[in-house]
UniProtKB/TrEMBL annotation:
Parts of the chain that traverse the membrane: 20-49, 109-135, 147-163, 169-185, 197-216, 261-281, 318-338, 358-381, 393-409, 437-454, 466-490
PANTHER family referenced in this protein's UniProt entry, alphabetically: TRICARBOXYLIC TRANSPORT PROTEIN (PTHR35342)
One Pfam family recorded for the sequence: TctA
InterPro entries: DUF112_TM
Phylogenetic placement of the source organism: Bacteria, Bacillati, Actinomycetota, Actinomycetes, Propionibacteriales
UniProt keywords, alphabetically: Membrane, Transmembrane, Transmembrane helix
Organism: Aeromicrobium piscarium
Protein's name in the database: Tripartite tricarboxylate transporter permease
Ranges for domain DUF112: 20-441
Keyword Electron transport part of the UniProt annotation: no
The organism's place on the tree of life at top rank: Bacteria
Length: 501
């Protein structure tokens, strides 16, 4: 009951004309950036992150709620109409979605995607409202050892379990931790890796790192391929942008099953929604084989509904893990954590006590953002498709200018621009060599937490390393971590053997 009262207060804070405008603007911009080929939801958050720093904390976080879910829908739009998903989380949706588009059912595929995103996100957010405060109360029992275990769990899980190559994932993690060490050590007051450059005493801004690695790196990667690859053909989207009654009831079980897959994965550091979307897609495919007339391979509406609901359910429950534990379970969630920290707020057990009004207003804005996105996307999805016709040369030139202005505006530092260019070049090299970017972002965000937690744990126990595994929580986290690594190794070994045959 307390959750409903607090949520009602959050709706009261959000229901002003200024905040409602920011929700709609966030949903609009998130979808617009996410729908463009090669950008995606993480890029939408990275590009628009500097712009929100001019707003007050509540307006900024409310706007981000729209960007957060809007970018996810944009990912699927590009995949359905061009067979080029904006992000890896939309790959599973693309399989049957693009086949539906080729069969002249693009509007129905987009409608299925929009309603699935709404269903998955709404169910996950409802659970967050009721269970995030309880999870935060449990997290108050966390000490330095538990927080170190939690950070280590996120590091290893995202670097080895999610990444295709454990070596590449760990290399990216190491580089991210190196970036996190730059600046003044808060414990000793000594400068680390600053090379006597005053601009580096405060460390490297998360805005510079994210914009450089995600935006500038992608721009250079696309520029290296311009003129050498044929542009994907845009399938026209014409017809009724809604589902008939039989289509709706055919998709409904898939939406619910997809949501059931996605919600648990938002709580664990699995790097995003890739795993639950493919699990949801694979389940629907196996169920389809039992039908008298299988539809997979020809454009199955359930092949779009399940992974889309799973992806947005993962994003919704990831917000709960972020708010209650301070744990970003994906690259996009890591960027949202940076937004909180920019305003001096630290997500975690005490956030609901210290900044409860903002937290409940943010949760209320998630519901409003999903309704706004449903209104924007159902009838106007064909209009979003027009953005796919923008020539890539103009599009990415504009992104470069916008990213540079955003980085400079946050600190008015030319050193930040130089760092952005250097890290952008590194991001390009990483893309060319299939090195994942998510471990870098997670390491930059959670690196300081891991360092200070380790120091505190050692100081409080007279440097006894056993204190790191002295509680049921730490033992449970390390056990899950070992099982996850073993499972990932077994899965890759089986896949490599299957390819040999």
């Amino acid at each position: 009951m307390d959750q409903l009262i607090n949520l009602a207060g959050g709706f009261g804070d959000v229901f002003t004309w200024q905040n409602m405008i920011w929700v709609v603007v966030g949903a609009f911009l998130g979808t617009a950036v996410g729908v463009m080929p090669g950008l995606g939801s993480a890029m939408a958050v990275a590009l628009l992150l500097p712009m929100t720093f001019t707003l007050d904390p509540l307006a900024s976080l409310i706007m981000f709620s729209g960007i957060y879910f809007g970018g996810l829908f944009g990912d699927s739009t590009a995949g359905i109409l061009m067979n080029t998903p904006g992000n890896s989380t939309a790959i599973a949706t693309t399989f049957e979605g693009h086949r539906m588009a080729l069969a002249g059912r693009a509007p129905q595929a987009l409608a299925t995607s929009a309603i699935g995103a709404f269903t998955g996100g709404m169910l996950a957010t409802v659970l967050v409202v009721f269970f995030a405060p309880t999870l935060a109360e449990l997290a108050t029992k966390f000490g330095p050892g538990e927080y170190f275990a939690l950070a280590l769990f996120a590091f290893v899980a995202i670097s080895t379990i999610v990444s295709e190559s454990a070596a590449r994932g760990l290399a990216a993690l190491g580089f991210g931790l190196a970036l996190a060490l730059v600046g003044i050590d808060q414990s000793t007051g000594s400068a680390r890796y600053t090379f006597e450059v005053p601009a580096l005493f405060d460390g490297i801004s998360i805005v510079v790192i994210t914009v450089a690695m995600l935006a500038i790196g992608e721009v250079l990667h696309v520029a290296s391929r311009l003129g050498r690859s044929n542009a994907a053909e845009l399938v026209p989207s014409q017809g009724r942008p809604w589902l008939t009654r039989p289509e709706f009831f055919e998709a409904l079980p898939a939406w619910l099953r997809g949501s059931a897959f996605g919600i648990p994965f938002g709580i664990i550091p699995a790097g995003g929604a890739e795993v639950p979307t493919f699990l949801a897609y694979g389940t629907e495919r196996r169920l389809d084989r039992r039908r008298a007339k299988p539809t997979f391979g020809t454009g199955s509406i359930r092949g779009v509904a399940a992974p889309e609901a799973a992806g947005n359910a993962t994003a919704g429950s990831a917000m709960g893990a972020l708010l209650a534990l301070g744990l970003p379970t994906s690259a996009t969630a890591a960027l949202l954590l940076a937004t909180f920290q920019q305003y001096g707020m630290q997500p975690g057990p005490l956030l609901f006590e210290r900044n409860g009004e903002i937290v409940w207003a943010l949760l209320a804005s998630l519901f409003i953002a999903m309704i706004a996105l449903l209104i924007l996307n159902l009838p106007f999805a064909p209009l979003w498709a027009k953005l796919l016709k923008i020539p890539q040369a103009y599009l990415y030139a504009g992104i470069t200018v916008f990213a540079s202005l955003g980085v400079y505006a946050t600190s008015a530092s030319t050193v930040d621009l130089a760092i952005m260019c250097a890290l952008g070049l590194l991001g390009f090299v990483m893309r060319r060599n299939d090195v994942p970017l998510a471990p870098i972002l997670i390491a930059v965000i959670l690196g300081p937490l891991a360092e200070y937690s380790l120091r505190d744990a050692m100081a409080n126990s007279n440097n006894d390393p056993l204190t790191l595994v002295s509680s049921p929580i730490t033992i449970g986290l390390y056990t899950l971590l070992v099982l996850g690594v073993v499972w990932a190794f077994w899965r890759r070994t089986r896949e490599s053997r299957a390819q040999d045959f």
